[in-house]
Amino acid sequence: MSSFPVxxxxxxxxxxxxxxxxxxxxxxxxxxxxxxxxxxHHPHVQSTYCESGRFTFFLGDESFDVKPGDSFVIPSGAKHxxxxxxxxxxxxxxxxxxxxxx
Length: 102
Known about the structure:
mainly beta; single chain
């Protein structure tokens, strides 16, 4: 069980760090239907696994839908964001750790 607090970075979005080390961080994001993950970029490589719900992701100039069981990698520095179509949970891994989430 994670000892990290749940934080609310955007309307309808809850984030909780599940595990971390300097080299790797695992983070849970829960989204309400219609909530958005704002477009952003960071130097970390990110992998995303859709545990539940449905989402449209925006990666650079492309968009694609994800559903439970889908996963993908976002390269370092790539601009990305998402919109939640059906409430759900994403599990993101970052390398190295995102110290801004601590």
